[in-house]
Amino acid sequence: MSSPCSLIKTLLFKRAVPKHSGRVIRFDENAPAILYTTGPMRERVLSFLRDHPGFATTSEIAKGIASNSSRTTKTLSEMVKDGSLQTVKIADCVREYGITQNR
């Protein structure tokens, strides 16, 4: 058991290191809209693409919904497979995604 003196010393002088749990939400002007950063990934992607007509790359979508590229890529692939999204791939360019028109 530690002495009371060392306990007080630890409490008074120990450097506090904040532990982050969950998602960090920023409130600056460069932060994506909260509509795109909270909720299920599929809804976040669809909301972003509805509000940004046309097609967008994986990195544009990931940045717009405040998610990492690998998670966004996985979600986009699933949505293409189920027909929610369509893709455009031009030779020597990245793949772009857009909402399927008949849905």
Q: Order of SSEs, N→C?
A: HHHEHHEE
Low-confidence stretches: none
Helix content: 40-55%
Strand percentage: 5-15%
Give the beta-strand count.
3
Global outline: elongated
- The largest beta-sheet arranges its strands as 1-3-2
Radius of gyration: 21 Å
User: Mean pLDDT across all residues, rounded?
Assistant: 82
Distance between termini? 66 Å
By CATH, the superfamily comes out as Winged helix-like DNA-binding domain superfamily/Winged helix DNA-binding domain
What this model shows, in words?
The protein has 5 helices and 3 strands. With 103 residues, it is of the alpha+beta class. The chain has one domain: Arc Repressor Mutant, subunit A (Orthogonal Bundle). It has a 3-stranded antiparallel β-sheet with strand order 1-3-2. Strand 2 and strand 3 form a beta hairpin. The longest helix has 13 residues. It is elongated, with a radius of gyration of 21 Å. The termini are far apart. The relative contact order is 0.13. The mean pLDDT is 82.
